[in-house]
Amino acid sequence: MRVLIAEDEQQLAHVLVTALKSVHYEVTAVANGEEAVKAVQENAYDVIILDIMMPVKDGLTALKEIRAGGDRTYIMMLTAMAEIDDRVTGLDAGADDYLTKPFSLKELLARLRSLERRNEDYDDDVLNFADLTLDNNEQRLEAHNSISLSKKETRLLQYLILNAGKALSIADLINHTWDDDDEVADATDLWINISYLRQKLQAVNSQVQITGEQGGPFTLVKP
User: Fold this and answer.
1) Residue 198 and residue 191: Cα distance in Å, rounded?
2) How far is the C-alpha of 4 from the C-alpha of 77, rounded, in Å?
3) Of 164, 156, 177, nearest in space to 131 by CA
4) CA terminus-to-terminus distance, the chain
5) What percentage of the chain's residues is helix, strand, coil (to nearest 5)?
6) For residue 124, what are the CA distances in angstroms to 73, 119, 133, 154, 195?
7) Using CA atoms, how far apart are residues 196 and 61, in angstroms rounded to an integer?
8) Nearest-10 crossing angle of helices 59-68, 33-42
9) pLDDT, one tens digit for every residue, the chain (223 residues)
10) Judging by DSSP bridges, how do beta strands 26-30 and 2-6 pair with one another?
């Protein structure tokens, strides 16, 4: 799981990064809200952890900009005990959860494990992007007409839509498309599925394209 941490307290940021890496999460740390917004625009994350009180751009402003850009990544806010109004504002602005400082690392890790389980069990039923509609339950892609997708194609396109406009590496796409109980996938397996998806986007006469060469990265774009 890829986690972005935006926290200006260097000691706390170091502790968080160390704790999350110890359980094999891939972690990126930034020191203010402006850097967080830029990172989200350029990269795909599974969780974003935003401190509210940060220099340059505070966490609430960063949250609003991230959501305004259409990003639906799970966002957890870090708040001080006195920031009750900010917690409410954050939840109203699109935050999914918050932790109050000081907090237990065990609690944070437990919440992230819970989120991992939830992500494995629940997907959005229908996703829309540009002229596309993806029905995850029916494994059906629609634009000017419709076509059926395989389970792998559905999950791959789902992740591409949720991170449209971002350059996604081969590792990103494999980790979010293949289950642990699947056969081990490699770059060739991914390329085959990307190629099938490109053919099916053309088949439904969609303007949406998947850019990228065989070695990746790949990006879902609307020309």
Assistant:
1) 10
2) 12
3) 164
4) 30
5) 45, 20, 35
6) 13, 10, 12, 12, 24
7) 40
8) 20
9) 999 999 999 999 999 999 999 999 999 999 999 999 999 999 999 999 999 999 999 999 999 999 998 898 999 999 886 667 777 888 888 999 999 888 999 999 999 998 887 765 545 689 999 999 999 999 999 999 999 999 999 999 999 999 999 999 999 999 888 875 556 678 999 999 999 999 999 999 999 999 999 998 999 999 7
10) parallel
- Provide the residue type at 40 as one letter: V
Written as six digits, the tokens of 1 are 């799981």
Take residue 215 and report the two structure tokens written for it: 């070695």
Longest dimension (CA), the chain: 55
179: helix, strand or coil? coil
d(CA 78, CA 131): 37
Contact 170, 215 (CB under 8 A): yes
SS3 of residue 87 by DSSP = helix
Count the neighbouring beta carbons within 10 Å of the beta carbon of residue 196: 15
